[in-house]
Design a protein that fits this description.
alpha/beta; 9 strands
């Protein structure tokens, strides 16, 4: 899971980055709203921790613009703005959660874990096991030089179901005698 930390105080950004990396997350740091917007538009992040009071573009504007572009990265505002109105504005702007400063690191990490649980699982572009290759987006299953076209229904299943289908295919093919015809 990839987390974007947007915080203009570099020491706090570094501390958050190290804590998240210690939990096994891949982390990218940004220090202003323009950089946050540019990085956020890539869609490469599963979770974004975002301060409100940022240089260049404020955090609420960043979230509004990302949501207007249909980007659904889980966004947690981490801000010193702590009034009820601030929290309501942040959530109404499109944030998924709001944490006020100062905060306990354990609470922030728990909120990130909760946000990660809400991230839809994206099927990989390709799954491979030895000579078995599954390309769910192209509806293809290949073993060696043989290829089968799958139906949309077979590939519309969850990634786990699609992988299970490939495993079933592998098991059926591996149980055949060498040189036997492989059904497609």
């Amino acid at each position: 899971m990839h987390v974007l930390v947007v915080e203009d105080k570099r020491s706090l950004a570094g501390h958050l980055g190290r804590a998240l990396e210690g939990e096994g997350y891949s982390v990218t740091l940004a220090y202003d709203g323009e950089e946050a917007l540019r990085l956020g538009k890539t869609g490469a992040f599963d979770v974004m921790l975002l301060d409100v009071m940022l240089p260049r573009i404020d955090g609420l504007t960043v979230i509004r613009k990302l949501r207007a572009d249909q980007l659904r990265t889980q966004a947690i505002i981490v801000s010193a703005r702590d009034t009820m109105n601030d929290i309501v504005y942040g959530l109404d702007a499109g944030a998924d959660d709001y944490l006020t400063k100062p905060f306990a690191l354990d609470v922030l990490l728990a909120k990130v874990r909760a946000a990660v649980r809400r991230v839809p699982m994206r099927p990989p572009q390709m799954l491979q096991y030895q000579d078995l290759i599954l390309r769910p987006h192209q509806f293809e299953l290949q073993r060696g030089s043989r290829q089968a076209t799958l139906t949309r229904t077979e590939c519309a299943c969850s990634p786990c179901s699609c992988a299970a289908l490939a495993l079933l295919f592998l098991m059926r093919c591996s149980s055949r005698k060498a040189g036997a015809a492989m059904p497609m």
